[in-house]
Design brief:
With about 375 residues, the protein is of the alpha/beta class. The chain has 14 helices and eleven strands. The chain has a single domain, classed as Luciferase-like domain (TIM Barrel), CATH 3.20.20. Strand 7, helix 5 and strand 8 form a beta-alpha-beta unit. Helix 3 crosses helix 4 and helix 6 runs parallel beside helix 12.
């Protein structure tokens, strides 16, 4: 069995003290826990209604006044590559999208980081979500087709050996394009694909070195992993060469009462708007945005005011909150992740959700969170 890998996640949001303190804190946690990699998110705005990000609902709002104040991820990773010399963690984006960025620019950014870090860059990539595309004038009508063409374009440029590339594409045609950056010691950054639907999972099998799924259930994880591996076999690739990964945000604390306080909070419940209607239905509830709502890919959270968000949160099943995150005492969280491991998971990227209603309790939850991450290394 392959060694179980651990990555640490950072959400790249500006704080009242500027852009550096929070990323340094999360980076230090990754080092302290001997994580294998450090990942940053790529968003233009938040995945939950900013109207709910106030000290009334979440203590961290005292440190992070604007939940939508996301920092540019490649700039952040370049800063880390130049300033943080301790440790040998790989650096990755989890994940960038193929709507807002021309794939040639993404290919350049990832290749540049790979050279700067001496081969430690990882390109996490996916379709993205409507909320970071449509409001900014990006066509959202065919996100999967655009994604497939973007990844094929990145591969074509990386494999061009500096020769001119001409390639037909409905989204990203190349006309005598050149890409002269070299790979690091003959190797390009690994591509880890965020894939949820059947077509995206088949694309993962064709193109990916690693896989980030959208499922929150261990049994479904194993079923989807089989789809990815079958697609790899169909493409005459080694199915076992694709790293089965997962991004999981953790809700833990010093006591069950502290954990329950988070799970029952309005801010945690409103996160479930990012779940598709079918997940709400499994928990015996109807999604407030309709029985056919697809979840985070189509959510526009910045248009939801506080009272509307509170009404939505009141309808969220508690069990869905517990499924959406890894919730529990350190031992309980470890057991949950062990179940995913038993269904094929080999690389877990974790983040501290940090939405305790009390800022003090948010700080004290760091110790049990660290206990979880250290124990995960032994899975």
């Amino acid at each position: 069995m392959a060694r179980f890998g651990i990555g640490a996640m950072h959400n790249t949001i500006n704080s009242r003290f500027g852009p550096k303190p929070l990323v340094h804190a999360d980076y230090a946690i990754g080092l302290a826990c001997r994580a294998d990699s450090f990942w940053v998110a790529d968003h233009l705005n938040s995945v939950l209604p900013p109207s709910m990000w106030t000290p009334k609902h979440v203590g961290a709002a005292r440190l992070i006044p604007k939940m939508d104040a996301h920092l540019e991820p490649w700039t952040m990773l370049g800063y880390l590559a130049g300033r943080n010399k301790l440790g040998r963690m790989r650096l990755g984006v989890a994940v960038t999208d193929t709507g807002r960025r021309n794939p040639a620019v993404t290919a350049q950014a990832a290749a540049s980081l790979h050279l700067l870090t001496r081969g430690r860059a990882v390109l996490g990539i996916g379709t993205g979500e409507r909320e970071s595309n449509a409001p900014y004038g990006v066509d959202w009508s065919k996100p999967v087709a655009r994604f497939e063409e973007a990844v094929a374009t990145i591969r074509a440029l990386w494999n061009s050996k500096g020769e001119l590339v001409t390639r037909d594409s409905p989204f990203f045609p190349l006309h005598n394009a050149t890409f002269a950056l070299p790979p690091y010691k003959g190797k390009w950054p690994e591509i880890w694909i965020a894939a949820h639907g059947p077509r995206m999972m088949r694309a993962t099998g064709r193109y990916a070195d690693g896989w980030f799924p959208g499922t929150t259930r261990a049994t479904e994880y194993g079923e989807q992993l089989e789809i990815v591996r079958n697609a790899a076999s169909d493409a005459r690739r080694d199915p076992m060469a694709i790293t089965p990964a997962l991004i999981r945000f953790i809700v833990t604390g010093r006591s069950r009462n502290e954990i329950d306080e988070v799970v029952d909070s309005d801010i945690a419940r409103v996160f479930t708007l990012n779940c598709p209607a079918k997940d709400w239905a499994r928990h015996g509830a109807e999604h407030p945005l309709g029985a056919d709502f697809t979840g985070n890919q189509d959510l526009i959270p910045q248009t939801i005011d506080e009272q509307t968000a509170l009404g939505y949160a009141a309808k969220a099943p508690r069990s869905l909150v517990e499924e959406l995150f890894a919730v529990g005492t350190p031992d309980e969280v470890i057991d949950q992740m062990a179940e995913f491991r038993d269904h094929g998971l080999r690389y877990l990227v974790v983040g501290n959700l940090g939405v305790q209603p009390s800022l003090r309790k948010s700080a004290t939850a760091t110790a049990p969170y660290l206990k979880v991450v250290r124990a995960l290394k032994r899975l």
